[in-house]
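Title: [Solved] Nuclear receptor domain-containing protein 3D structure

Original question kept below for reference.
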Amino acid sequence: DSESTMEIGMSPPSFLEVTSRIGVDLPPSSSSNYECRVCAHSAHGVHFGVLSCRACAAFFRRSVVMEKKYTCRKANQGCRIDKTERYLCRLCRYKKCLQLGMTADNVQWNRDMISSTDRKRQSDDDGTDIDAYLDWSPESKKSCLDDPPLYDLSKVLNKIHKTFMEFKIPVDDPVYQATNTLGKMDWALRRHRKHHKMQDFRIANTVRLDQLVDMWGNEMTKVAEFMMHSEEFRELSSEEKFSIFKLVWQISQRFEKLTMSLEIFGKRALEEKILITSNNTAIRMEHVDVDLSKITDYTSIELRKMFHPLCSRLYDHVARPLLELDPSSIEISFMLCQIIWHIAGKTMQGNILNAGEKFIAKIADDLHQYYMKEYKMSNYAGRLIKLMTIVNSLQRIHLDRLKLMKLAKIFDVFKVKITDPCFFQD
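Solution (posted by the thread starter after getting help):
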C-alpha cells in the first residue's frame, strides 16, 4: 500500500490539477467522472493543487490551520486510505494528501471557521470523522449573523410543567379504566391521532422558522401528556420528569410522526419520504425548502446535504420495516414506550431507572396477553424481534444525529439563542 501511494504521489499532474491551485470545482456534469485522488470518492474539483473531494480538502485545510498532530492507528504509517477506510487513520490520510502534492501554501488561513475555543473541544481520536458528516466548503460560507435571534420557550415549558402538575386520569372513560398499562398508553396515542385524515393533509413545499418553533411547542406538549399516562412516570418528582422529558421528546415525536405518516400515506410515504409535521401539513423530506436564514448562513441545499444520510437511514431502516411489518396501534405504543424508557434508562439511575424497569416489565406482560388474545399466538418471538430491531435502529440514528448536531455546534452552523437549550439536544 505504501509503495502504491508513493507511485501515485510521483505521477505527473493532470490537466485538471494545473488549471488552478486553489478550490476549483468541477462542473456538475463532469464531477461524477473523476475520483478524489486521496480517498477515491467522487471529486468536486482541484483543492490545494490536487483533484479531491471537499471532505478531503476540508480535512487537509483543518489539519494545516489547526496544526494537528496525529498518530497512526496501526503505528506503522502504512494504513490504506480509500472509500471504506479514509476515516480510520488521520495521520496516513494527511501524509497521503502531502504525498499527492497538497501544499500548505495554498491554505487561506483567514477563512478558518473554528474558533480557538472550539478547537480545544474537538477531538480527532474519538472515532468520529467530521468530514463524513459536514461536507462544507469555506468558499460557500456567507457573512455571519452578528446578533442571533432569541426564542423564548418559557410559555411552552410552563405549559409542560402545568401538565406534569395538573394531569388528571380520565376516570369517566370506562374503556380507559378497564384496560392495562399498555392499553392506557395506546389510548393516549390514539387520542392524539383521532382527527388525522388523509383528505385533511396538504404537502408543503416551504417551511418557515416560526412554523418550526410553533410545531416544537405543540409536539412537546403532546409528548408530555402521553408520558403522564404512565403511572411510574407520574410518581417521579417534577425534576425527574423534566430530566427524562428533555432527553426523549424529540426522538419520541419523530417516531410518532413517522408511523402516523405511514398510516396516512402508506407506501407513498416511503417512496416520497413524506413526513407529517402538524395536524394538516406534511412535507417531502428531500425536497422541502426550510427557511432557516435567520439562524444560519448555510443554504437549505447545504443543510439538506448535511442531514441527508440520516434521513435516508430513517426511511430505509425504520420506515421500510415498519411498512412491511404493519404494526397495530398497540405495537406502535409498545415501541414508543420502549424508545422513551430505554433512552432514559441508559442515562439515568436511581428512581428513574427503577421506574423504567417496572414500567417495561408491565408492558411486556401486557403485550404477551395481547398476542395471546388477539392473535392467538403463543410463539411471537419473531415478531417481537422485528419490533425491537426497529426500536434499536431508531435509537442508533438518534445518537448519530446528536453527534451531527455537536459537530454543527463546533462549526457554528446554527446561530440561535434559546431560553432553555437543554431541551434541544438534536
